[in-house]
Design goal:
This protein has about 375 residues and is α/β, with parallel strands linked by helices. It is built from 14 helices and 12 strands. The structure holds manganese (II) ion. Manganese (II) ion binds next to helix 11.
């Protein structure tokens, strides 16, 4: 297992790479080029700059989160072919600079949703929260305006004002689309890119839909064990795998995350490990990582990863804002401190499960035979 940390890039992330380098056990970052629109090939010069900058900080960059899928691909429009060509070009360029895994999602229009970005917890920290009835009662424009107000200086990925101007059109495009048609569009994409992923040895890792329920009338498919099975079967390959996101899958009450890990095994290429606390059957807030503070059993999750011999990348997913980080304009869900504590906690669980030799601390924490 390799412990990584999400970094949004120099212009988008207030956390310098040298801080990330100082988190014990974190050996790499997971990043993206957020300003490049979905459907456009990433310029090689940008990829080179990004990877050189991260290497200069003494960190690895092997996972990109995300290379986004253009809506034309999800909708199955004729224009999808040129977007797929661009996607493959981006994959080729990324492979050239050492990228081994690409995280992406198949969420229509809306990447993710929360009702609150800075929900106050009794200990004075704050966190992201999801209140189903509230999200069901609000329009996407109202929710975007709420994010823009709350998130201060950051554009929330997927909720950019430019994108929101066209939201009605984007939502309408999905009206009447059947689940079968959506799966067929996903298959068309996978059939096109997975052979290239195999050739380039890039592991494609689909991220589950967040939250795992339909919102604004949009189909949400990658939300359950059954649907993940169906998705991966569209194009069976070791390079067509999963980003195991405990917070997304776990937001459906009763989801058995350890069983999901054991079922998909070697197809889990990348893991987002975080906890959440249910307030009732549908509402939750993102808690600190510890089992005792949330609703997911983190030991059982790490144990399942250990049992399958997981050797991919992990990151602590979201964190709360603590130590006054919110007032210093931390990016919601992506503050430094709580995620750093999360990484240390997950590494502690892992060390208990898979003790390693002190001589073997190469970053890739492999078990003793
Ligand atoms: Mn995630």
């Amino acid at each position: 297992m390799k412990m990584t940390f999400r970094w949004f890039g120099e212009s988008q992330d207030p956390i310098p790479l040298r801080y990330i380098k100082q988190i014990p056990g974190v050996t790499g970052v997971v990043t993206s080029l957020l300003d490049i629109p979905a459907g456009e090939a990433w310029p090689e010069s940008r990829i080179r700059h990004m990877t050189e900058q991260i290497a200069a900080a003494g960190l690895e960059v092997e996972v990109i989160e995300s290379v986004n899928i253009h809506e034309d691909i999800k909708l199955g429009l004729a224009a999808r072919d040129e977007k797929i060509e661009s996607y493959i070009l981006t994959m080729e360029r990324l492979a050239k600079y050492g990228i081994k895994c690409i995280c992406y999602n198949m969420m229509p229009v809306i990447d993710w949703a929360r009702s609150d970005l800075y929900y106050d917890l009794p200990d004075g920290s704050n966190t992201m929260r999801y209140e189903a009835a509230f999200v069901d009662s609000i329009t996407p424009e109202e929710l975007a305006a709420r994010y823009a107000k709350d998130s201060q200086t950051y554009e929330m990925p997927g909720w950019e004002p430019e994108r929101m101007k066209k939201i009605r059109e984007a939502l309408a495009a999905y009206e009447g689309m059947s689940e079968a048609a959506f799966y067929a569009n996903m298959k068309y994409f996978l059939d096109a890119i997975i052979p290239h992923a195999e050739r380039l040895d890039i592991k494609m890792a689909v991220h589950p839909d967040d939250p795992p329920r339909p919102i604004f009338g949009l189909p949400k498919l990658i939300i359950s064990r059954e649907n993940i099975r169906k998705y991966l079967a569209l194009h069976p390959s070791k390079h067509n795998g999963l980003t195991l996101c405990t917070g997304s899958l776990g937001a459906k009450k009763g989801a058995d995350i350890p069983a999901i890990i054991r079922e998909f095994g070697e197809l889990i290429h990348f893991a987002h490990v975080r906890n959440l606390k249910f307030e009732n059957d549908t509402d939750f807030y993102e808690s600190a990582h510890l089992t005792s503070l949330g609703s997911l059993d983190m030991y059982e999750i790490m144990k399942a990863l250990s049992d399958i011999g997981f050797s991919g990348w992990v990151r602590p997913d979201h964190g709360r804002m603590i130590w006054d980080e919110a007032t210093r304009k931390g990016r919601p869900g992506y503050g430094l401190y709580d995620r750093a504590l999360g990484a240390a906690y997950l590494l502690g669980l892992w060390e208990g499960l898979r003790p390693f030799s002190p001589n073997d601390f190469s970053g890739n924490i492999v078990p003793k035979p």
